[in-house]
Amino acid sequence: LAPAFGPATVFVAEWAARRGLGLLHLVELPEAVHLLLAVLLLDAWLYLWHRLNHVVPVLWRFHRMHHADREMDVTTATRFHLGEHVGASTLRLGLIPLLGVEVCHLLIYDSLVVAITTFHHANVSLGRWDVRLRWLLVTPFMHKVHHSRLPLETNSNYSTLFSFWDRLFHSFQMRNDCSTLEYGLDEFDDPHWQTIGGMLKTPFMNPRKP
Question: What integer pLDDT is reported at residue 138 of this predicted model?
């Protein structure tokens, strides 16, 4: 998708910046404050987009490929259906002139997203530091709960970078012990769904729960 949406994203961001479009251009701000607000706004959008992927049935059909992974590790961070990427990238083209984010803001935020999603999908334990860090950032334990096959836990912890969005919008969910978590989705337990062909067909099939 990068060859298609990369140039389009740069074009839209530069076009909006030249015309002073967007929320962040309403008031003259120091560059550091401008960057911080851009990161916060982009992260708030990604929280909303992620939550919509769990609530809107047609979006969930594509997003569930990510949740069908029965083993959670760094590879899970890249397991998204092409249709979900296209939807997210298209919507962001319209979001850029509304928010007024610039190319440098997008590059910095996207770099943070790659780093933090790799981090919180990793099969690692931070011990006591997980509790301390999750007041600000999404940690591995917090995101493992999101990948639980229990619906109450699956439909929680939507934040990507900053964890406080879930507390703010009442979607935060934790448990005392993550060692008993079971990952995946009941209807996608058959090994076929873990193949490339199975993953690509995930949005278009209706397997029944056992």
Answer: 96
Residues 6+ away with beta carbon under 8 Å from 163: 134, 135, 136, 137, 138, 139, 142, 157, 172
CB 76 within 8 A of CB 6: no
Q: Label residues 9-26 b or e (16+ Cβ within 10 Å = b).
A: beebbeebbeeebbebbe
User: Is this structure's pTM higher than 0.85?
Assistant: yes
Please give the C-alpha separations between residue 59 and each of 79, 87, 105, 115, 144, in angstroms, as whole numbers.
15, 9, 27, 25, 21
CB atoms within 10 A of CB 77: 19
Residue-wise pLDDT tens digits, 90-129? 999 999 999 999 999 999 999 999 999 999 998 888 888 8
Q: What is the pLDDT of residue 1?
A: 61
162, β-bridge pairs:
137
